[in-house]
Every structure is written in C-alpha cells, then in structure tokens.
Amino acid sequence: MSSFIEDFRYSVVPLAKHRGFALAAILSLGLGIGLNTTIFTFINAIFLQPLPVQDSSALASIVTLDSRIPGYFGSSYPNYQDYRRRNRSFSSLLLYASFNGSLTDLGEPQPLAYQIVSGDYFQVLGVSPAMGRAFQPEEDTPGGNGLVAVISDSLWRSRFGADPHLIGRTVGVNEHRYQVVGVAPPGFQGLNLLNPADLWMPVSGFRQVYPKATWVDGRRMAVFTVAGRLKPGVTIERAEAEMRALAEQLAREYPRDNEGRQLRLVPLNETATPAAQRRTLSSSSKVLMIVSGLILLIACANVANLLLARAAGRNKEIAVRLALGASRWRLIRQLLMESLALALCGGVVALLLARWASVLLWALRPPAFRAAVFHIALDARVLGFTLAVSVLTGLVFGLVPAIRATNPDLASDLKERTNNSGSSLRANHPRSALVASEVALCVVSLIGAGLFIRSLINAEHADPGFDPDRLGTVSFDLADRSYTHERGRELQREVVERVSRIPGIVSAALSRDPMLTVKVSRTVTTEDDSSGQGRLVLASSISPDYFRTTGIALFRGRDFGPLDSEGGPRVAIVNEAAAARLWPDRDPIGRHLRFAGTAAPLEVIGIARTANYLALGEEPAALIYTSMLQEYDSPTTLIYRTSGSPEIVEGGVRGVVQALDPGLLLRSTSVRSVIHASLWAPRLSAGLLSVFGILGLALATLGVYGVISYSVNQRVREIGVRMAMGATAADVQRLILRQGLGVVTVGVVAGLVIALGVSRLVQSLLFVTSARDALTFILVPSILILAAIVACWLPAYRATRIDPAIALRDE
Fold it and tell me: Reduced to 3 states, what is the DSSP secondary structure of residue 463?
C-alpha cells in the first residue's frame, strides 16, 4: 500500500507543475464523462429506480398479447376475476386503471388524475397509508359502500393544506362526493409514473357514479393493468407458464372475447411507464448513450495524444530511471497513476457538469412529463457509474502512452541532445493512429446528428392526412358532470351552433377523440367474413362537418348529416386502409359491417383519406367513423377552424362552453401545438446529438491541430534544411497539409464505413429519412475535412515563418 501511495504522490506532483497540460486533459475528460453521466442520470431515474412499494422484485404485471395488435395491453375486469380465482402462483392480485377528471369542491374545477383500483390494491403493494386506512373488502363489492377514496400526500398538502382533520370528510370528484379514508405515504403516487395519481377509488365506487360504467363488466374491455405478488419460491418463468395455460382455457371458454390473446409476465417497473413512451425513451436513451460514448472516446484519444507528447519530453528522465534499476512495471504503474489522477479529476468536473445539465434538460421536458414522478438526482448509482467510467477511462487513455514511454532507446535518450529530424507523422504512428480514430468517431457522431436533424425537419413538414394549420380544439368530458344522454346531446349541439357563430370561426365539429389521440379499438365483422372472428380496427365517433373542419378528404360517398340520427339507419364511414383491409378489390360503399357486442349493422356511406391517428409517420391504420348523432359519447372534443390564429379566438371559444356549463373542466390547445409536443423526443434527440456532434468536431479538430503542431515543432531542422535548399513557403505548407490530411482522410473513410454499417440500427427512430441519407453522408465528411484543413493550415503557416539560419544554428 505504501508503494501505491508513493506512486500516486509521484504522479500528482508533476501534474501540479504542468498546470496547462493538466487543465486541458481534465476539461476534455470532464466533458466526455459528464455527457455520459448526464444521460445515465435520466436512464437511472426512468428505468432503474425501484417503485416505492414493498419488495418490488416479487411483483409482476400480467400483460395481454394479441396476434392482431403489436405490443401489449391490459386485461378486462372479468378476466382479472378469473385470474385471481384460478391461479396458483400469486399470493394476491390487484388491478388499476388511470383516468383524468376534476376536483369540484374548491371553486373552479381543478384537473385531477385518479385511479380506480381493486379493494386490495394497497395491501398487495405493501403500502400503508400515512394517515387513516386503506380500502376494506366490503367497500369493493357490488352494492357496497364504494364512495370512499384515498388521496396522495401531494394532493393533501397542495389542495387541502395538510389538514390533519381531513380523514372522514368528503371531497368532490366529478360532481360526486367521496369520503376520504386515508392519505398515501409521501413519495407514492401509484404505478403510472407519467400520470401519477392524486386519488384512488375502488371499482365499486366507479360503478355507482358513472352511468356508462357497465363497460367494466365487458370481457373484451382490456383497459385495466393487472399485477400480482408471487408466492415465495415461485419464479416469474413458472408463473408465466401457468398464466399462459390459463389464457388458453379462457380462450376456449370465451372464444369471442379471448381468442388470439395470450398472457405474459413482466417486472412491475416495466409497466410503470406506458409501453409507447417507454419504447421511445429507451430507443432515444440508447442512441444518446452511444453517441456520448463516442465523444468520450474522442476525449480519451485527445488526452492520450497529450500524454504521448509529454512522454516524448520525458524520454531522458525515464531512460535514466531505467538505467538506475527501476523496473518497467513500476514505471508503467506510476504513469497509469498519473492517468487515473487526471481521470478522477475529470470525473469531479463531470459530476458538476451533469448536475447542471440534468436540471437544464429536465426543465425542457414536454408538457406530458410535467407531472411525472421521476426523481432526477445524482444518487449512489450515478456516482458509482461516474467512478467506474472515470477509472476505465484512465486505464484506456493511459495504457498505450505508458507502455510506449517505458520502452526507450537508452543509448539515444541518454545523450545530451537528440535528433528529431525523423518526427514526421509517418514516423509517429501511435499519435497518427489516435488522430485517425478521433476523426472516425467524429464522423460517426456527426452522421448520427445529421440523420436525426434531417428526420426532425421531415417530421415538422410531414403531411398528417389533415390540415393542422388554424385548427384549435377544446376537450371536456360530460361524464364528469353526470349528464344523461339527452342533456349531453343537447349541450353538444349547442356548443357547435354557438361556436360556429363566433367571428373568425370558419367551421366547427365534434369528435370523441382529440387529434392524434384515437384510443378505442373495436372488433368488426363484415357480411363477407365467414370466420366470424372479425378484425380489430380503430374506431371514432364524429359529428357532421368533421371532415370539412379537419381538412381530411372524403374521396367517395357522402358525409354524415343531420338525418343520420339515433332513429335513422345506422351508417359508417371508413378510411382507405379499412376499405382495403375489409373489402380488398371490392367497393365498400353500400356494404355492411357490425361491431362486436352490437346487434345493428352499419351501412358504409363514404370513404375518407387515411390520416395519422396516434402519431406522425405511423403505419397506415384502419379506422371506422360513426356518427355522434347515433352513438352518444361523453368524452367530447370540439374542433374548430379559424381564419387566423386559433389562439386569438381560444378565449371566446372557452367562454361559449363555460357559459353553457361553468362546471366543465376544459382542456384547450391548437393542433399545431399537439404536433409540436408529439415531436419532443426527436427534437430533444436531434438537439442533444447536434451538441454532442459539435463537441466531437471541436475535440477532433483540436486533436488534429495538436498532432500537426507537435510534428512541426519536432521537424524544425528538417523544415530549415528544406527551405535552405530552395523550398518555398507554399511547398512547406503543401507538405504539412498533405501529411495532415492523409491522416484525416484515413479517419473519414473509416468513419464512413462504420457509419454505413451501424446506421441501419437507428432506422426505426427516423421519420421518413433513410439511415443512409446521401446528403448527410456527403455533408458531414465535407465539414470535417474543411475543419481539418483549418487545423492543419495554422501549424503549416507557422512552419513557413521559420528562419532557416536560426533553425540550423539551434540544431
């Protein structure tokens, strides 16, 4: 241990004497390690933090797979009851579903995120309320007193002033009174991290107050997340095998509802973030970690070049120590200690940078993440990651210079003077190889940034299938106010009529779903379907004038009209994708379809253009429109087109709706804002990759400048001889530029080959952009070569200022 301490002290003292060298190395490493620490901080917060429940490793979510739908989704309430009765692997099961409503007893309605849960929800999770109690079994049975609620600690503090006497009192949720029986412990806001719950109510309470809550009993309505605690000694693989067998039993017993569905078990943490957002976050994080890793490697190559240059000036010192009997291993260890000291100092700088950058990036998160309960912090896991990266970095950039420095030519290095005339780039292979590697890594990172920038530009100008300009929306849910069908239809009609009369409004219509947020899928059968299984398609209900308002083209047939009302023949409009899927090579106009669970068939009266319904750039999805005049829905989105900016008339539109019912909770926005918010992930990725690419370009350019400048300094005598023999300044510049650009060209070619090989891995993240986009692959090398020319020209220009007489006399 004493020898290690001595080696460490020996490595630190020289660094203190060469502060310029140490500062340059520490800043380079701090930048590279800091970028990696920043990205890992987010990965740690989103993917690695355990949920605040008891023994989360013993909890697993039961997800449903359907052969007709990519990804996974939840379970229905009847299926959950069968799982609970028949399984032998779980000691207990819970279920929950997330909703948005309003808190209605504090004056103006306030947004409220709540969950309907099974009665044993808190017991299964091992979460004990900080005040009061959890739900009791009798409160979650049909006919029981289910109008009770547990509220979150944050809601208790922010809306009720941490009132210690709140237990036993009632709060208004969507115009209904719920008795508060408990307050959840601090830090627990449910199992949906992107939509944390403010309040929990049992399923029976939801049934009592929502007129359309009968859908809870539908076996096809897979809207609940089901999770359970495994029995001691039961593995997740064994439990999954049992649940798969149970799914097959239910498919045989209820073929209409469960055929084609399978079950899978995943760790509870994986379902805490919705699947679509989790995939987006995971893919973006991987790309950012790869690119930040490339920047770290570039920084390592830069510092390795600095160490090689410094080692060249210590040849005589090292030769003397070897001649006096020092072992080579001892010298390598001392030099590695110097590298580790630099890396650890760089790690400290990295933590400071990551702390600042994490706060900045988290402030730029999209509105959908504002309520998220991710805790962005430099915790023990992040500190351990930074320490590990720092130590590994120190070994990576310090090993080659240490080995090369301790293998000197003793006879030459012990002389009073050395002859440095052979210090061309070709004679200095390690440094040239490092520069070429930096350039190659920079090419890869810049091409990645270029591809994502091109992808973002394409997404911003994409055609979503409708006209988003001058389009605004106001969403509300009439179920929050317990509207009957008759009252709800009347208010919807009044809203459209009054808003249409506002100056600046061109047209207005209603839809069940906001733009780019179609949520409902339904199984549909046609008169030609002999199998009877049907096909799963998206479904949305709309009012007349919807297509004119949104700008979705109606190719054939007619739009819904006032006569397509509740008493008239049932009709539907299909999009192009649905027409091609349900009636290939046939004319769908006049044909009939039927939704599962309904008796009356619907006649197809029109074909609309296929648009984007969930996200920009999605694969064409089949969708069937029904008339809101025939199929009442309480979730309502008013869509209006204006002659100018939607923001100008937004206040007037909200005023009209509030005049009809001041108690409605309104959510208003422009469709352009919705599209802009939907592109937050590619925008953030493009921005960060651009910053990373620019930093990589700067580091690579400095690396090229450093090695060329060092070569020129070592070749003063050679250049003096050349100029004394008649070489002009232009000849010397061409010589330096040719040798420098030779190394850069090798790096550019290697980087292009690597980028071509790995670019296909990010194709799924790009929007209407080829992973081998020609413009990007031409522009990036051009920029890099231009930067390299500048980096090589500066030392070349300095070389032409050498006086041959002085150079030859000094040597």
Answer: coil
792 or 637, which is more confident? 637
Q: How far is CA 592 from CA 529, 631, 676, 693, in A?
A: 11, 17, 38, 56
What does the alpha-carbon distance between residue 243 and residue 87 come to, in Å, rounded to a whole number?
7
Q: What residues contact 759, with CB distance under 8 A and at least 6 apart?
A: 447, 451, 771, 772
**Helices then strands (H, E): number in the chain?**
25, 22
Whole-number average pLDDT of the chain: 86
What residues does 538 pair with on adjacent strands? 521, 623
Q: Give residue for tokens 């449903």.
A: 64
Burial 657-667 (b: 16+ CB within 10 A, else e): beeebeebbee
Beta-bridge partners for 557:
606
Tell me whether residue 398 is exposed, middle or buried, using C-beta atoms within 10 angstroms of its C-beta: 0 to 12, 13 to 18, 19 or more: buried
pLDDT band at 670 (very low <50, low <70, confident <90, very high): very high
Largest CA distance in the chain: 108
Q: Where are the beta strands (DSSP E) in 14-155?
A: 59-66, 69-73, 90-103, 110-117, 131-132, 148-151
Global pTM reads 0.81
Give the gyration radius of the chain's Cα atoms: 34
Residue with the bigger pLDDT between 160 and 362: it is 160
Tell me the C-alpha distance between 474 and 661, whole Å.
Answer: 14
**Three-class DSSP category at 765:** helix
Give tens-digit pLDDT for 150-199. Answer: 999 999 999 999 999 999 999 998 888 999 999 999 989 999 888 899 99
Which among 626, 622, 516 has a CA at the least distance from the CA of 573?
626
222-226, 711-715, 801-805: segment of lowest average pLDDT: 801-805
Instruction: Let me know the angle formed at the C-alpha of 769 by 766 and 770, rounded to the nearest 5 degrees.
Output: 100
- pLDDT(418) > 60: no
Tokens of 552: 């979705």
Contact partners, residue 367, CB within 8 Å, separation at least 6:
677
Element spanning 266, H or E: strand 261-267
CA–CA distance, 628 with 630 (Å, rounded to integer):
5
> Could you give the 3-state DSSP secondary structure of residue 106?
coil
Which residues have C-beta within 8 Å of that of residue 151, sequence separation ≥ 6? 160, 166, 171, 180, 182, 183, 184, 198, 199, 200
Which helix (H) or strand (E) segment holds residue 201: the answer is strand 199-202
Start-to-end CA distance of the chain, whole Å, equals 45
Pairing of strands 667-670, 521-526: unpaired
* Pairwise CA distance, residues 177 & 747, whole Å: 70
* Whole-number pLDDT of residue 590: 95
Q: Does 675 have pLDDT greater than 50? A: yes
3-state helix/strand/coil string of 117-133: ECCCHHHHHCCCCCEEC
11 touches 341 (CB < 8 A): yes
Q: How far apart are CA 651 and CA 403, in angstroms?
A: 72
What amino acid occupies position 277?
Answer: Q
- Tell me, what's the pLDDT at 33? 95
DSSP string, 699-736: HHHHHHHHHHHHHHHHTHHHHHHHHHTT--HHHHHHHH
Under DSSP, the state recorded for 543 is -
Residues 795, 259: Cα–Cα separation, whole Å: 73
